[in-house]
Amino acid sequence: MKAKELRELSLEEINQRYREAVKESFDLRMKRATGKTENPLRVRLLRRDMARMKTILTERGKAAAAPRSTGK
């Protein structure tokens, strides 16, 4: 998923997708350990998507915590 698409989602949606990605990552690692991975490239793509999601969540967290200027 592209970062642009992720930025359009709400925090709840990003968190939900992140939790799903963590679960899928675990499942893929187990399949890889048993040698039953159908698409080994999916592991790398999933890790990158998870990193994008965490980056966007961090950016939004910092933006929310930043002090608001009074406009003076």
Q: How would you describe what is shown here?
A:
The protein has 72 residues and is an all-alpha fold. It has one domain: Orthogonal Bundle (Helix Hairpins). 75% of the residues lie in helices and 0% in strands. The protein contains 3 helices and no strands. Helix 2 packs antiparallel against helix 3.
Question: What does the secondary structure layout of this molecule look like, with pairings?
Answer:
Blueprint: H1 3-7, H2 11-34, H3 41-65
Helix pairs in contact: 2-3
Helix content: over 70%
CATH architectural type: Orthogonal Bundle
Question: How much is the average pLDDT?
Answer: 89
CATH-derived topology: Helix Hairpins
What does the overall shape look like?
elongated
Class based on secondary structure composition and strand pairing:
mainly alpha
User: What is the domain total for the residues?
Assistant: 1
Task: Note the gap between the termini.
Answer: 40 Å
